[in-house]
Amino acid sequence: MSTPTLEVTGLAYAYPDGHQALFGVDLHVHPGERVALLGPNGAGKTTLVLHLNGILAAGAGSVSVSGLPVVKENLKEVRRRVGIVFQDPDDQLFLGSVRQDVAFGPANLGLRGPELDRRVMEALDKVGMAAYADRPPHHLSFGQRRRVAVATVLAMEPEILVLDEPSSNLDPASRRELAEILRSLDVTVLMVTHDLPYALELCPRSVVLAEGTVVADGPTYDLLTDEALMAAHRLELPVGFDPDRIGSLPA
Fold this sequence. Notes:
Layout: E1 6-14, E2 20-29, E3 34-38, H1 45-52, E4 60-65, E5 68-69, H2 75-81, E6 82-85, H3 98-108, H4 113-126, H5 142-154, E7 160-164, H6 172-184, E8 188-192, H7 196-202, E9 205-210, E10 213-219, H8 220-224, H9 227-232
Parallel strand pairs: 3-8, 3-9, 6-7, 7-8
Antiparallel strand pairs: 1-2, 1-4, 4-5, 9-10
Helix pairs in contact: 3-4, 3-5, 4-5
């Protein structure tokens, strides 16, 4: 078995106010997998994600990325390997042009000249935004800005792409376009989402987090059609949605 791209072992974390957010989380994601992280509000999903590139430091347990421990002395390399796309693209787009925003991360790694240009345009091409390289981000639609936010992370050539609610606030066409982009990428994906149909469409495997622990891990279709599991953890499919329309995706 290959080394997991992401390995979380016994991860526990309490905030400074004493609130215990994670209680011994175990999670592994292997190269090329697309995994959805599901759970109700307050389950600990965001807290878990903030440990993956060292924004938060584990109170107990460990996190590693392709065998590299997520500890202070490794943070520069960890943050190259783990690309997090936040829910609000404006948290990641702050410069005068799309090109500048996408170049920001690789330039901080020391890339210059033709290699930096190549990284930027390849990343923009992967998300269908190469024609917008010289546009100011604030002139783009919300869906376009989200695609550029994905490109800012892809330009770092990460080993795992972590997406926080990627379909939120997207119109149906933008939602479909983003799904097509995510399916086309040759990168390991961990997707945090409340959009259960999107999880079923994109992620063959899902993990359910509740009250700071992993309560289920398996094929997305199996979890979403487990009525007892869904009810116990406040997970609901949209009214009228039939999971068999998408069916059980291959692992």
